[in-house]
Design a protein that fits this description.
single chain; mainly alpha; 6 helices; globular
């Protein structure tokens, strides 16, 4: 079986997304079960933790299960909501930089955050197209 460059790229992206999903899941579980260590009581938000846990769990599901016609729109919706959440979370930092309240270091962090969020739906679509091309 020959592995083309597009499949190799897909497998590399998929491995990175699985590691990101594992990180998000463990961070969210840790945040829920040990709130005193991770958050102060004023910033405690179960909604944020559960959202990250759902997104991380969706990244851990094998994409071959999600390419089926009835699960594909749901997975794409979850990943698109993840992109929207990443934009929402990055925007205050970028605006703070423009206003002079934050360091320039917020820009690369926000860019990496957005790129990782955009890669997930792109990889799902890439997996579906790779299967069609077979």
């Amino acid at each position: 079986m020959s592995v083309t460059s597009s499949k190799l790229l897909y497998y590399l992206i998929r491995a990175c997304l699985a590691l990101l999903g594992l990180f998000l899941m463990t961070a969210s579980v840790f945040s829920i079960f040990y709130p005193d260590i991770v958050h102060s009581e004023s910033s405690r938000s179960y909604l944020r933790d559960v959202t990250l846990m759902v997104y991380g769990g969706a990244l851990l599901v094998p994409f071959r299960w999600l390419r089926r016609s009835f699960l594909f729109p749901l997975a794409l919706l979850i990943f698109t909501l993840g992109v929207m959440w990443a934009v929402y979370a990055s925007l205050p930092g970028v605006v703070g930089f423009i206003q002079g309240r934050k360091s320039w270091l917020i820009l690369p962090v926000s860019a990496i955050f957005l790129v990782l969020a955009v890669i997930a739906p792109a990889a799902l679509i890439m997996r579906r197209r790779l299967d069609v091309v077979k």
